[in-house]
Amino acid sequence: MEPGRMKVAVFQHMETEGPGFFPEILGSRGISCEIHRLCDTGETPAGISSPLIIMGGGMSVHDEKEFPFLAGEKEIIRGSIREGRPVVGICLGAQLIADAMGSQVYPGTKEFGWCGIERESREYFTGFPDRMEVFQFHGDTFDLPLGAVLIWKGHEVKNQMFLLGSAAGVQFHPEITLPLIREWAKERPARDIDSLIAESSRQIPPSHAFCEELVDRFLLEGMR
Q: What local confidence, expressed as pLDDT, does residue 6 receive?
């Protein structure tokens, strides 16, 4: 990393749930992306003081016995919010923020593929339609932490994006890429995969535009 160059830490929980489009966005803005593969090390890194992106994963926030690094992540989340450092949580990452800040996380309606969400707040994402399609891959949901503001909501799973202090929790996957979709869908029938890929080719560009807004508005602004 170049001396003095800004960086963002990324926590990756599983081999198959990488950072997707995030490194490209950050690189285009001159930001270094430092990926911490918790799936390999089994522990959270010490001394995290940079803004943070927390990715998804197949485990539950309650699986600390099997995945002890989850407890360390929650401590880092609480410390980051307390000190005003930006945190963006994706799927499991959003659930970790909710759990770390005292809310309940529990099984909900399983969602996979492109699903509609609706705007709850008109203060943010003003350049986007009031309803848009986003990629979902989750089974758990959460209650909003005390003081959180709901930004986007869904029909089957209400809490889709919230803000809490310096943190943004996002239940869906704006960072999604075609390789990630192929990996996540590989056990499904070939006809379903072909249909999903065709739809994804249309939906990914606006999803990436949303991801860029997420980075610029809720991650990088807090770094300045």
A: 85
